[in-house]
Amino acid sequence: MRRTLSALIALSLAACSGGGGSGSVVAGGGSSGGSSPTPTPTTAGCTLRERQDWAAAQLNEWYLFPETLPASLSPTGYADLSSYVDALTATARAQGKDRYFTYVTSIAEENAYYNSGASAGFGFRLFLSGNRLFSAETFEGTSALTAGIDRGTEILAIGTDASTLRNVSDILAASGSAGLTDALGPNTAGTTRTLRVTDAAAGTRVVTLSKTDYTLTPVSARYGARIIDDGGHRVGYVNLRTFINTAETPLRDAFASFKAAGVTEIIIDVRYNGGGLVSIAELMGNLLGANRSASDVFDKMTFRSSKASNNSTAYFAAQPQSIAPTRIAFIGTSSTASASELVAAAMLPYLGNNLALVGGNTYGKPVGQIAVDKAACDDRFRIIAFALQNRDNQGAYYTGLASLIPNSCKAADDIAYPLGDAREASTRAALDFIQGKACTPITASTAAKSAQAAIEREPLTPAAPSVPQRDVPGLF
Predict the structure, then answer these.
(1) How far apart are CA 395 and CA 246, in angstroms?
(2) What's the whole-number mean pLDDT along residues 86-101?
(3) Residue 372 burial (CB count, 10 A)
(4) Parallel, antiparallel, or unpaired for β 379-389 and 103-106?
């Protein structure tokens, strides 16, 4: 069990108290750049230099790519901890192995998110399409949904009030995407902004909304799990937003409904899912493993040679709600990363051509982080420390799952329709794959990935993303 491994790592680190609410193992944070800011030191042992020296020591002990670390790099000249960590990991980043996956964040903030989905914001997921800004998804119990902003709503202008509204295109022209994140204000409850928005449902209007504390539901009660009747063909659909602890119950409920209905053909929609806890990825595998034995491998976790005693293998463990899938379509985009990719890769040896990647190529993060804590400073150091492989030792898909999964169907992310709607382009393509229809494959070449990026909506991402924003790309 992965929690046993997590406890082992925690015990081996004097400063580690585990992370993510279920131990120290995380495979999340795919599409964000830069590192989160860390608190101003106020206690003994928390001067900037002490924190920098501590971070360097942890990297030298745990980093998966020790050969890429500089032989020596003085902290002098680095104004904060994050910039020093980024400098230490620059070589691995240049090699495409660590794209800001190693970072320092807040213990309190991360625990709140992974344990309960706690966040603060308007509650929508924003994506850029050229110089236009849209909500690709809006979350329940948030001010954005209360104001009528949902999937497909375009944000035309942003201001602190109606008199200061500036067009999104003008903000982008003047300051780029950073100007938009600045215009939306800090992620603190009580921040208020006025927006001019438009959509097919209610037309153009001006709304004022405030950022609030809310709980992100990992499986939407509106569309997160359903059985789609596709011309008499019944297909299970589950959309997982993020791999956090509170995903366990809704995932079990979803698969229980599939099992009760005798559904064995499944669409797993992780098109915006940036990852999260390995334990929840393994739970999803178990829910797909009714016909797997206790000796069947789900994934292998491999550390650097000096830490090989921590290597482990996770085996399938069928649950009361488990089904035996006959065909699975994973919907992905370039925002699909880490734990999301792990589930698809882990199921590939068992499904073969009965498994497909649908939509677009994924981000490419076949590695995961442990957590090392410096509790007095509220510092949690997320360090890329292990690689992940499936039963057949397939991993290293740094260019995305299209390089690993031979069966794929290219499709658009169609925000004109709700997620899970049979008319939505990626959902339609997934249904067609399940029915055995022909499709255009996704390719993993550099040119193809560039072409995909040119047409795919890009999540709006701040330079210093919060913990939720790392695992939920585009979250504001």
Answers:
(1) 28
(2) 95
(3) 28
(4) antiparallel
Nearest to 58 by CA among 11, 16, 107, 101: 16
Asked if residues 332 and 270 have their Cβ atoms less than 8 Å apart, the reply is: yes
Question: Given its phi and psi angles, is residue 299 left (phi above 0), alpha (psi -120 to 50 degrees) or beta?
Answer: beta
Contact 320, 287 (CB under 8 A): no
For residue 6 the two structure tokens come to 């997590």
Residue with more model confidence, 217 or 34: 217
First CA to last CA across the chain, in angstroms?
34
- 385 CB-near residues (< 8 Å, 6+ apart): 62, 63, 64, 303, 304, 307, 368, 369, 370
Per-residue pLDDT, averaged over 200-207, amounts to 97
Alpha-carbon span 402 to 411, nearest angstrom: 13
pLDDT at 454: 52
Task: Record the tokens describing residue 31, joined without a space.
Answer: 């599409």
The whole-angstrom separation of Cα 346 and Cα 37 is 34
Q: What is the DSSP string of 298-361?
A: EEEEEE-GGGGGG-EEEE----TT----SEEEEEE-TT--THHHHHHHHHHHHHGGGEEEEES-
Nearest to 338 by CA among 240, 416, 251: 240
Pull the structure tokens for residue 8: 């082992």
Average model confidence (pLDDT) for the chain?
Answer: 90
Helical residues (DSSP H) of 202-277, grouped into ranges: 248-261
Predicted confidence band of residue 445 (pLDDT cuts 50, 70, 90): low
DSSP letter, residue 424: S
Q: Could you read off the pLDDT of 278-301 as tens digits, one per residue?
A: 999 999 999 999 999 999 999 999
The residues, ordered by sequence, that sit 6+ positions from 186 with a Cβ below 8 Å of its Cβ are none
What sections of 209-247 are H helices per DSSP?
A: none
Confidence at 434, pLDDT banded by 50, 70, 90: very high
C-beta of residue 267 within 8 angstroms of C-beta of residue 434: yes
Give pLDDT, residue 107. 96
Tokens representing 461 are 């991402």
33 pLDDT band, cuts 50/70/90, is very low
DSSP string, 94-113: HTTS-SS-SEEEEHHHHHHH
More confident residue, 42 or 34: 42
State the Cα–Cα distance between residues 104 and 124, nearest whole angstrom.
25
User: What dihedral do alpha carbons 211, 213, 214, 215 form, nearest 10°?
Assistant: 140
* pLDDT band at residue 449 under the 50/70/90 scheme: low
- Residue 64 is given by DSSP the state S
**The predicted structure's pLDDT at residue 358:** 98
- pLDDT for 451 equals 57
> Quick one: which of 291, 287, 392, 382 has its CA closest to 338?
382
The one-character DSSP state at 243 is B
